[in-house]
Amino acid sequence: MLPTFTWWNxxxxxxxxxxxxxxxxxxxxxxxxxxxxxxxxxxIRIGAIFTQDQKDSSMDFAFKYAVYRLNKDRTxxxxxxxxxxxxYVPPDDSFRTSKRVCRQLQNGVQALFGPSDALLGPHxxxxxxxxxxxxxxxxxxxxxxxxxxxxxxxxxxKLLNAAFKDVIKFLNxxxxxxxxxxxxxxxxSNE
Length: 191
What we know:
Helix content is 39%, strand content 14%. By secondary structure, the chain is an alpha/beta fold. This is Glutamate receptor ionotropic, kainate 1. InterPro entries: ANF_lig-bd_rcpt, Peripla_BP_I.
């Protein structure tokens, strides 16, 4: 049985951020062991950064639906409600995006999702790494640097190439053309 903690006992802001990442680990362990989690706050705020052209997009709806499903299934987090704060930012404006992320963090957001934009993503990731905030994103990232607080859900080019290869073999194709909008080392699929 886990001890009961009061969320407000932690005085420093950065300590709270580190605590949230540790909580995510504890949540995962407790869910796997089917034990009740009593150490969580009643409300967890998560933020999302989407570009303005992603408003009402499939990614926007998927994020909202994921939060809805988590809140509806009381076996996962029985005494905790997840609320989201979505900010829509102009594409190619890293300054405004950084300000919005900082405002979200000041308002108590404990984890961030997004953006999928190649220009804005590294800025948000940098802020999250500096402040020890858990960060999830889904964007093509050609850097293979390990980030301590960031998880990229987008498959690597190596995995995409392997998937294409498997499909080609399964369908017994002898010739194939894959057209990319941008050159992102996709030519390495000669295997």
